[in-house]
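Deliverable D2.4 — example input (structure tokens):
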């Protein structure tokens, strides 16, 4: 009798029609007195809380991106003996392959809000025969946000006339193929093999395909025979972020903060040895405004580390910046002050993230992901409350507000990559790979958790409510994504690059991508709500 009870609890929670909150919603976020407020006012408060969480996600993503830069640029020293004269030859090689870094660190990290949200939803749903609705809906909606609005932003980010193209088309085609296959695979297991249910083996195969993606992309990057496409590539820069940009930013930072007494670590690229060297002797502060500190020696003095960490808290509490001091318009200065005051709680909280140079950025990278998970948990609670109070189908919220908000780190990371890197590889790879990560990991892991529990406890598969609506969204996404990729290919053939170009054509492309996103959102929402 346990299984019917589990099923009944799910149906009572979601409703036969997928509508929640037809009566008075007795759930609350912090205080029980919230239930005495009017429904309209509660919805407004919860949406404001959701928006504030998305602002926090954007702020922590910036720290995540800079920490990841330190992880990716790390080199190791390799000593070899010359067989002819028996002398030592010292060379330096990168620890991380750029292609693997794009797929794993960048795509996985920026997709972590969606992955965390889906995993939390799955853990809360353990014991039920039906899968939670927030995870799959958010991840499919996030895929549409990644492909359309983020491409739209990246196209217009380069300066007028500046062109940025993908240097390794072969790797991009492999990533794109696996991204498309991810959604084809999802449709197959939802509608063809086992309609409306997910088995343990289907969930396991979904997760394992992420490893196949990594292997195939690496094989293409290294041009392994029989496993790679025979396509030439232009030379990609040695550094994940061009050193000229970093040096320029740091010189500006050193000039701006020359009153502070903290050692600056400059990184200069030697073209012969292809490695970063430290150049001491400049005063600079760790500022949450700049975020461009380079890798510091592992044996750095602890007082320097503590001082830099302390400076993060001082910067978080400071409401004035050099930009605001240069702003003579009183209204703009006031607006900037209000904005920094609004961000102050997030800035103070994220100041606990260690400086980026410690342990080659790994400590800051992991701490950033932990904060992202915490915010994702609050987002799931707020989304439940909005659905409960308003009666809006949770899938509709997942496709729209939740998908857009949790995809904000993807947008920030791709925008930064499009601005700072000389090629479009990482900006576009983050989009295509994030979509693959969303399916193989973001949906695969939560479904694996639920199917494993149901198989052990009930000997039953995981049932998917609103599977027809989800499948319809996949078809719409696939159709609109073909149009998006066709435009990128057309730009490559005509302009010679995927991003940038003449301002008029860049904005036309941007508007077209946004229209594709609106088509996806409207059609998916109408189908989920049983209007079409």
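Example output (designed residues):
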């Amino acid at each position: 009798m346990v299984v019917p009870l589990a099923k009944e609890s799910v149906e009572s929670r979601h409703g036969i029609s997928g509508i929640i909150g037809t009566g008075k919603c007795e759930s609350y976020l912090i205080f029980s007195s919230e239930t005495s407020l009017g429904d309209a006012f509660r919805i407004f408060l919860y949406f404001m809380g959701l928006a504030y969480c998305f602002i926090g996600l954007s702020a922590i993503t910036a720290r995540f991106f800079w920490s990841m830069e330190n992880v990716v640029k790390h080199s190791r020293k390799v000593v070899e003996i010359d067989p002819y004269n028996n002398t030592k030859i010292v060379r330096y090689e990168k620890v991380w392959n750029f292609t693997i870094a794009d797929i794993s660190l960048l795509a996985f990290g920026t997709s972590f809000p969606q992955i965390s949200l889906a995993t939390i939803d799955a853990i809360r749903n353990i014991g039920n025969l039906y899968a939670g609705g927030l995870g799959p809906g958010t991840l499919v909606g996030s895929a549409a946000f990644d492909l359309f609005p983020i491409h739209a932003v990246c196209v217009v980010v380069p300066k007028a006339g500046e062109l940025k193209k993908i240097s390794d088309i072969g790797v991009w085609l492999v990533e794109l193929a696996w991204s498309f296959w991810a959604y084809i695979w999802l449709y197959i297991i939802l509608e063809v093999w086992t309609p409306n249910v997910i088995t343990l083996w289907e969930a396991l195969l979904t997760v394992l395909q992420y490893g196949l993606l990594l292997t195939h992309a690496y094989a293409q990057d290294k041009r392994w025979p029989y496993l790679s496409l025979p396509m030439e590539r232009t030379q990609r820069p040695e550094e994940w972020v061009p050193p000229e940009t970093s040096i320029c930013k740091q010189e500006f930072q050193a000039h701006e903060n020359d009153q502070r007494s903290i050692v600056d670590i400059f990184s200069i690229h030697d073209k012969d040895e292809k490695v970063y060297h430290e150049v001491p002797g400049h005063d600079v502060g760790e500022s949450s405004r700049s975020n461009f500190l380079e890798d510091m020696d592992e044996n750095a003095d602890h007082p320097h580390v503590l001082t830099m960490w302390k400076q993060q808290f001082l910067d978080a509490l400071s409401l004035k910046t050099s930009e605001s001091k240069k702003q003579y318009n009183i209204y703009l200065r006031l607006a900037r002050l209000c904005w920094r005051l609004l961000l102050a709680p997030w800035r103070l909280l994220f100041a606990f993230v260690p400086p980026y140079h410690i342990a080659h950025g790994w400590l800051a990278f992991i701490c950033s992901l932990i904060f992202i998970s915490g915010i994702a948990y609050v987002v799931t609670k707020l989304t439940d409350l909005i659905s409960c109070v308003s009666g809006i189908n949770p899938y509709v919220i997942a496709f729209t507000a939740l998908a857009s908000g949790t995809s904000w780190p993807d947008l920030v990371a791709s925008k930064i990559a499009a601005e700072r890197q000389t090629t479009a590889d990482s900006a576009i790879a983050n989009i295509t790979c994030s979509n693959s990560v969303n399916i193989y990991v973001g949906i695969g892991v939560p479904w694996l958790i639920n199917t494993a529990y149901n198989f052990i406890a009930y000997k039953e598969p995981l049932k998917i409510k609103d599977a027809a609506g989800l499948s319809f969204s996949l078809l719409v996404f696939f159709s609109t994504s073909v149009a998006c990729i066709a435009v990128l290919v057309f730009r490559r053939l005509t302009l010679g690059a995927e991003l940038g170009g003449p301002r008029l054509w860049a904005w036309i492309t941007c508007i077209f991508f946004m229209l594709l996103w609106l088509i996806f959102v409207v059609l998916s929402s109408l189908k989920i709500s049983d209007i079409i």
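The radius of gyration is 25 Å.
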